[in-house]
Amino acid sequence: MSETNPLLAITDLPDYAAIRPEHVLPAVEAAVAAHAQAMRDCASMAGDPAILLAKDKADVALNRVWGVIGHLLAVTNSPALREAHAQAQPVIDAHVSAVGQDKALYQALASVDADKLDAVQRRALELALKEFELSGVALEAEVAARFADNSMARSRLATEFSNAVLDATQGWSLDVADEARLVGLPEADRQGLAEAARAAGATGWRVTLHAPSVMAILTHAEDRELRREVYTAYNTRASDQGPQAGQFDNSQRMQDLLGLRGASALMLGYEDHVAVSLASKMARDADEVESFLTGLAKAARPQAEKDLAAVRAFAAEHLGIADLQPWDIGFVSERMRRALHALDSAEIRQHLPLDRVLSALFTLVRDLFGVELHAAQAPVWHADVRHFTLHRPDSTQPIAALYTDFFAREGKRGGAWMDVCRPRAEGGAVWPVAYLVTNFPPAAPGQAATITHNDMVTLFHEMGHCLHHLLSPVDVPSVAGISGVEWDAVELPSQFLENFAWEPATLKAASAHVESGAPLSDDLIARMLGAKKFLSAMALLRQTEFALYDLRLHRAAGGDNAPDPQSVLDAVRTQVAVIEYPDWHRFGHAFSHIFAGGYAAGYYSYLWAERLSADAYGAFGEADADRAALGARFRDEVLAKGGSRAAIDNFIAFRGREPDNGPLLESWGIAA
Question: Does the annotation mark 462 as catalytic?
Answer without folding.
Answer: yes
